[in-house]
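[step 3/7] fold_predict: job queued, chain A
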Amino acid sequence: MIKLKIAKHVADNTDAHALFFVKKAVQFSSVLTENGEVQAANVLEEIEKGICEDLEIVEIDGHKTIFVNAAKERGLSSLDHLRMAGYRLGKRAAQKQFKTVKLLLADAADEQVKAIFHGLYYSAYKFNKYKTKPAKDFTVTFDIEADVRAKDFERIAAEVAVEQHYTSLAKDLVNTVGSDLYPEAFAHIAIREAHKVSGVAISILNPRILAKEGFNGLLTVGAGSRFEPCMVKLTYSPKNAPKDKHLAIVGKGITFDTGGISLKPAKGMKEMQSDMSGAAAALAAICAAAELKLPLKISAYLCLAENRIGSGAVLPGDIFKAKNGKTVMVDNTDAEGRLVLSDGICAAAENGATHIVDLATLTGAMVRALGPAITGYFTNDEELSQKIKAAGDATCEKFWQMPLEDEYANELVDHYADLSNIGKSAGAILAALFLREFVPEGIKWSHWDIAGTAYVEHPWKYTTYGATGIGVQSLIELSRELGDKA
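[step 4/7] structure written:
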């Protein structure tokens, strides 16, 4: 665990101090003696030459001092460098069993302080649900010297604590194995989380209601599993929200994806417990927005089903009628995410959404195109595109806009049905074009394909393995942007 303790001045009786640096320059405020400045300059010279390393611990002015490189990695923004610096510092402090570490940040800008705090929190995340003998937790308290900005730092720390709590919730959900997190179990967790936060209403659409209201995408995908599909609807409607804006977040919640009759290869199938990452992010984001009291009406639709082979499983070539009346031929049962999302998008539109963001681990094509570092997104509105990019920049989640290329749209026209669920060429683009068929005219919409960024099997930034929590913080920031009346 980590704790943040904000004070105008911090006593020098901590176990260690930390100095952030870029090349040969110490960043932010530092109170060193003349001799200490010489010592620090010598250490930075040695790090520059490769004699010492990042996170070197040296006695400076009588205090153990951790030198943290704030520009170590390639290809990151300045804020993400600080997140990574905070992350590495948190790991190092825990490894060395430092109970208290002093940070001098009085000269840092608000966004820099926030980035460091996020990094420190990331360093403490663990998923020990299935460990019989988990490693003992060790708490590091970071004493932040803020000078006259103590109140500002306290506000920032409170925001970061909420954002990180819900990022961790999303990660915990994704890291939970598929046999434990089936649709009903996910729905019960959503109820629990909604009841913890003031202002969030929740309702569950079970199979009977789904059938009555024509949400056949979920019913089609979930037909092969003994676990029944459902749609979870959450609503947050603050009194100070602008009347002309309503953000709906639609999350793909395939709690496990075998591929159905169009069976996936065995290699890597265990990762398919992460196929509900979009729904996890949607749940986390709306609860965080409510706890932060953001001035925006938000709804979330968790489209929960298990795509399993069974006696009732949908067959390749089967045709069903979607919520908006269009018929869909299921050419490939492993292209199931877009089917459940169609229900969520239609539900959001029916309930008055002015803006819809759907996010899903949708296509291998996006993984191959952009890898684990960048989320590809599609949108029908340039203003919304700019807000998404700005939200990603602020939260160090990289986004790249992909084209909604109409030249490919005819590939989705089926011989007998209105639509096929796959085409023959540009997989990620065709998936987005399919989803666009369910977005009514006049609604600003964006589709985020998080297939590459939601789950990693090798260390990447502040995730050693498993769920990254991608999308949660960008959705929170986007909600801030949309709720800004200025």
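[step 5/7] annotate
The first strand starts at residue 2 and ends at 7.
The mean pLDDT is 96.
exit 0
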